Amino acid sequence: MKINQVLPAISYGDAVSSDAIEIRGLLRDMGYSSEIYAKYIHPKCSRYAEPLSKYKGDAKNILLYHFSSAGLDVTDLVKSMPDTKALIYHNITPPEYFLKYDDNLSYICSKGRDELKAISGDFQLGIGVSEYNRMELEKIGFKRTEVLPIIIDFDKYMKYDVELVNNLSRDGFINFLFVGRIAPNKRHEDIIEIFYIYNKYINSNSRLYIVGNKQITSYVSKLEDRIRELGLSEKVFLTGMIDDKKLAAYYKSSSIFISMSEHEGFCVPLLEAMFFGIPVIAYDSTGIPYTLGDAGILLHKKNYIDVAELINIITNDRVLLDKLVKKQYQRQKKFNRDHIRPSFMELIKNLSAMIK
Fold first, then answer.
1. Are residues 328 and 185 in the same domain?
2. Residues 248 and 145 in one domain
3. What are the two backbone dihedrals, phi and then psi, of residue 182, each rounded to the nearest 5 degrees?
4. Per-residue confidence (pLDDT) for residue 14, from 0 to 100
């Protein structure tokens, strides 16, 4: 029996693609023959994936289909395969977030949500990467559902850009950090407003680093305009996409991780921040509380002044800071590969029993 994965695209630095790569590694460690197939393959991911055109379905095999936007012809192909099939759902951003910025992306998200509803009967199992996602699958009609958190290779963050760490840390500034593609649902503007209050009225020796893909240019322009209006051009930095060593450097050099996102299926950066011992503040929305659990600080309101003052308290109260970081470490360990492995093995066992 082979257990293969299919994605419409496998991309460099993308959480969905990274999850597929980690699942392949785990399956191979467990003794299974396993490949990843994708229609579009980023050159940096070519050693991990095969062209989708090479995929041959087999009723004796299991197919895991990663779903995070409209798959269109890829979804049609997966539906036609005789394999026992499970859909891994990473969630789809509600299309209304993109209406003012990217009509095509809004259409793809809308189409993806319609597609998801239509294919619930074509899969033997629906797998949410969070409980939030699992509940959504159940609500739209998937008969059997499970949760399998995104598998993260924390070891890759052991190597970091030493020069960058030194540059970011040498002046003793308080560094705010948010990691995630620059998209309207992430609400970067909220973070910028909070940072403005903190920097102007509490501690001018502070900076904000926003790390993530600048794909939606009209939204990026809006943020850049607001940064200039607030006089923060020398304090707020949009880095764009960076490699793992630089990403680790930003985490190692930051004092606070803040998320005001209004839609997340899982939110890997929360766990990355926990791994690096950075206190996390996040807005209570969608998949965020399921990943954060009882660690970090979960906000139920977006009061910019209150959040700025809270950050000041956290960064100056060593006892509170240590308590937060300790709780976060405990939470992060629950997402380690070794912790997830037994439940993943049980999931595969259940899928194997469904093969006709």
1. yes
2. no
3. -80, 95
4. 87
Lookup: tokens for 139:
């609500």
Does residue 274 share a domain with residue 161? yes
Per-residue pLDDT of 60-86, as tens digits, reads 999 999 999 888 899 999 999 999 999
Residue-wise burial string across 136-174, b where 16 or more C-beta atoms lie within 10 A, e elsewhere: bbeeeebeebbbbbbbbebeebeebbeebbeebeeeebb
Q: Are residues 309 and 343 in the same domain?
A: no
- The Cβ of residue 96 has, within 10 Å, a number of other Cβ atoms equal to 12
CATH of the domain at 172: 3.40.50.2000
Mean pLDDT estimate for the chain: 95
130 and 229 share a domain?
no
Q: Quick one: average pLDDT of 173-190?
A: 97
Residues 313, 278, 194, 199: what is their CA dihedral angle, to the nearest 10 degrees?
70
pLDDT digit string, tens, across residues 9-41 = 998 888 999 999 999 999 999 999 999 999 999
Contacts of 252 (CB under 8 A, 6+ apart): 160, 165, 169, 276
219, two tokens: 């939204």
Residue 356 has pLDDT above 80, yes or no: no
Which are the contacts of 166, defined by CB distance < 8 A and separation ≥ 6? none
pTM greater than 0.90 (yes/no):
yes
- What does the alpha-carbon distance between residue 18 and residue 21 come to, in Å, rounded to a whole number? 5
Shared domain for 91 and 172, answered yes or no, is no
User: Token pair 């970090």 is at which residue?
Assistant: 296
Is the domain of 120 the same as that of 170? no
Q: Which helix (H) or strand (E) holds 9?
A: strand 3-10
Asked if 324 and 297 touch (Cβ cutoff 8 Å), the reply is yes
| Domain encompassing residue 270 | 154-333
Same domain, 164 and 70: no
The mean pLDDT of 115-130, rounded to a whole number, is 95
